[in-house]
Each structure stands twice: as structure tokens, then as C-alpha cells.
Description:
The chain starts with a strand and ends in a 23-residue tail after the last strand. The chain is 30% helix and 31% strand. It has helices at 15-25, 30-38, 45-65; strands at 3-11, 76-93, 99-114. The chain has a single domain, classed as CATH 3.90.470.10. The protein has a three-stranded antiparallel β-sheet with strand order 1-3-2. The mean pLDDT is 88.
Amino acid sequence: MVQSIARVRHIRVTPQKARRVVDLIRGKQAQEALAILKFSPQSASEPVYKLVASGIANARVKADNENAYLDESDLVVARAFVDEGTTLKRFRPRAQGRAFRIKKRTSHITVVLATPDEPVAGAKAPEAAPKTAKAGK
């Protein structure tokens, strides 16, 4: 019954590299996601680990405020996505007085943790298949 959102903005990891890490944990249980992130070698795994841990803490606080029971092993990474943040533009000197632009990209990472019996906000409910009448011969 509890859904929690955790976000980190302007993290100094390129969105492409962060998406590789986020794809590892999408749909997994929160404790399993923490174990995967703890041992993954990518540099983006550390901020995503902290983000999932923050989402678990957010769910715990939200459940306490609502006087609801929360079993942390029930939490699932319902949605996780990476958006592109601002790009820092820097210049490096090149030959013959030229300048070379370096783009230092940033990311906005969002993780939504929810209990599995709860529909995720923004997700469509499964629709029933349309009934088709059989053509009699």
C-alpha cells in the first residue's frame, strides 16, 4: 500500500552509463537491488545504491506517518529511469591556438519503490481483451 519516490538530480554521471546500471535493478525486489548494486563494478552503481536505500527509508517514514505496516522485503523497484541533466561545457587547448569543447554530462535519476499489490501511479491498468463474435458458417 506504500509507494515511495527517491530522486537525485545533477549527478555527475553520464545518462548512458547510469541507464546501464538502472536497467539492472528495474522490476527487482529492493533488497535484491541493493545486493546487485553493491557488487556491480560500474561507477554509477554507488549513487543508485544510495538512491534505492533512500527510497526504502522514504517508504518506512511514509508508512509510519500513515500508521501502516511495512515489510521492507515486499518493496519492489516499480519504476526506475534516468533523465538527462544539464551539461557543463568546458574547453581544452588544442594545437595552433584552437579550443576543443568538452561536454561534462549530468543525470537526473528517479527510483519508485512500491508494494506489488499496489498499481503504480501513471501506469495503465490492463484492459480486458475485446470480445469477438464467432462467424457462424
